[in-house]
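PROTEIN DESIGN WORKSHEET
SECTION A - STRUCTURE
LENGTH: 283
TOKENS:
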């Protein structure tokens, strides 16, 4: 035996993620009694093999493609909530499907979890007798689900009455478009505000053109601030924030109004942030 002491490594707890299946509504479990079980089992044996699909994955594929007309589950289905979820999925895709839970469900003398019955283009008397018996058992035991009986779940395309098309006269049609008499003339000329006219008369250097005022204020309240008021506003901004540079303040003074430029502060990272040493740097 070696003299070296054996050290036990501190194993970190492994994080495991588990899938959780939640059922926010109640689903009736269509469990049948012994008499109905023997009756359904005998009728199931008479159904042709081409219409029977055995296995959970194969049955779910048929339910997904909406080709099944009946579904049989074993009463010992585990987990039980997954069986209810399969029933809910089948009823959503096929509202008229017949579903029963039979104890000791068998096909060819072997236990099965799920058996799906497929319909066909041609009518099969053995299949019709099985579906009629299942429908009778469902109604007698009250297994009808609210989802199947509600008209909301069944999507029906309701034909809306079409409104008769009314003919428009050429005069009414011409009113929808703006026309111009000359090629050099605009079809739409906006209204010039009184403030633009006054500013244009007072300052001949600025070419306002066709000015559209977007402000809701009156022309009397739109007076230009003096240079002293502008300097005071700039100084107050510098005292409050302290982040406006000299260049931005000079630009403010050059403006003819109380214009303040947009300043975006750089977002700094957290210096106390812990870095993962094992993380590889992206090249």
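SECTION B - SEQUENCE
RESIDUE ASSIGNMENT:
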């Amino acid at each position: 035996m070696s003299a070296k002491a054996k050290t036990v490594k501190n194993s970190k707890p492994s994080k495991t993620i588990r899938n959780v299946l939640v059922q926010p509504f109640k689903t009736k479990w269509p469990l049948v009694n012994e008499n109905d079980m023997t009756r359904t089992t005998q009728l199931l044996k008479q159904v042709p093999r081409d219409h029977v699909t055995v296995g959970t994955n194969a049955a779910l594929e048929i339910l997904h493609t909406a080709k099944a007309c009946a579904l049989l589950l074993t009463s010992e289905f585990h987990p039980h909530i997954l069986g209810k979820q399969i029933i809910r999925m089948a009823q959503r895709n096929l509202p008229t499907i017949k579903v029963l839970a039979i104890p000791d469900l068998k096909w060819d003398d072997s236990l099965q979890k799920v058996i799906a019955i497929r319909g066909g283009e041609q009518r099969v008397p053995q299949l019709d007798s099985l579906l009629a018996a299942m429908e009778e058992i469902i109604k007698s035991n009250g297994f009808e689900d609210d989802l199947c009986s509600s008209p909301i779940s069944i999507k029906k395309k309701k034909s809306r009455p079409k409104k008769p098309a009314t003919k428009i006269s050429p005069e009414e049609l011409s009113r929808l478009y703006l026309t111009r008499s000359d090629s050099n003339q605009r079809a739409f000329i906006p209204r010039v505000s009184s403030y633009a006219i006054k500013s244009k008369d007072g300052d001949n250097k600025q070419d306002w053109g066709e000015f559209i005022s977007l402000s809701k204020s009156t022309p009397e309240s739109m007076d230009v601030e003096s240079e002293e008021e502008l300097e005071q506003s700039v100084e107050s901004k510098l005292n409050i924030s302290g982040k406006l540079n000299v260049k931005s303040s000079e630009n403010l003074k050059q403006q003819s109004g109380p214009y303040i430029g947009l300043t975006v502060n750089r977002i700094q990272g957290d210096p106390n942030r812990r870095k993962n040493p094992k993380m590889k740097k992206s090249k």
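SECTION C - NOTES
The first strand starts at residue 52 and ends at 54.
Strands lie at 52-54, 68-74, 98-102, 106-107, 110-111, 114-118.
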